[in-house]
Here is the input.
Amino acid sequence: MRRPNLIFIVADDLGYADLGCYGGRDADFGAVSPRLDAMAAAGMRFTQGYSNSPVCSPTRFALMTARYQYRLRGAAEEPINSKSRGSPTLGLPPAHPTLPSLLRGAGYRTALIGKWHLGYPPHFGPLRSGYEEFFGPMSGGVDYFSHADSSGNNDLWLGEQAHTEEGYLTDLISQRAADWVQRVAKDDAPFFLSLHYTAPHWPWETRDDRELSTRIEGSLFHLAGGNIDTYRRMIHHMDEGIGALLHTLQRIGRLDDTLVVFTSDNGGERFSDNWPLVGGKMDLTEGGIRVPYIVQWPSTIAPGGVSAQHCVTMDWSATMLAAAGVAAQPDYPLDGVSLLPVLRDAGHRFERPLHWRMNHRGQRAYREGRWKYLRVDGNDYLFDIDADARERANRGPYEGERLQRMRETWEAWHATMPPIPEDATVSLGYSAQDMPQR
Ligand SMILES: [Ca+2]
Here is the structure.
């Protein structure tokens, strides 16, 4: 039997409730995400899915390796920033097995279309980590029209060549993805596509804001710009591109045997809707790490499923390897766990304890069943997430034994990971001087 094609779509800084199918409100122009909502209806949606980190590059290390990112030095940067250009240590080591390298070794065609954010050539890069083809930015955030990073350098690449191309980045990425799939689907080999949008990450530019982009050059954090309407349109542009890709798959007869996963690399940013969760990007409260997971695979997943299975980014990488029948390398066993039994039966559930840590504010988190142990700024909390996903009712003072046991479990897990390096950096784009905190 032919092995399934695999498409892993990652949005950038999309919040838990930004999409209609996660309770998001309509925009003034109408539904924000009609194609992703339709994908959820045709496939399955996860309500208790997490990102490996509340910030970009650490999650991407986990996605690529299907292992806890804390194992790799570069992932200790929160996040990798454009000052890391030329660093021989701050990136994904090419010798490390990855989701694309393992799949490619098993005969898959592979491409990354969109954001990399795992270190710069000549030491690092997508072509060195298993992708046959790459189109997109190497850094964390770029302007949608000039394609310049926060240092003002052009950061659009085709393979390892600097590349110039007119257009709105979300549309360029969508078009390339549809073209690539059409091209490789002609071969007998199955394919794996990483489709990593920069949308809806700052700067706050819609397809119609080319003129605006010339005025904010060099200040990509765009602290004086953006609004809810712009933000929703940016999501809508991405949604259109995903719809076009799914339509292409259908037209060439490859929709049924393609597993498509959609998620976000971390929780929402300043214009995101994370309701009912608290916090956002950089936080280990739920708003920083709970993200949408929408999955479609018509040959295997029954339509309309909703699962409360706990899962995290690296589990989806493990799921794709399992779907392809590809084993991990013995020296790099996976921390990710395959979700295939859940995809085949939306009612299937299994225990999936999950751990996080952040240098930023000394945060820790541990989810086990309905409970979550959380530390922020030296304060320990215990929340019953099933009853209080908003993490306002601290059960710690009333459940001291449980809190203590979960703290010890987290510490035992932490002891199995390399310590946070002393020279690891935390980069924040702005502070309370720029906008009031809640
Ligand atoms: Ca991000």
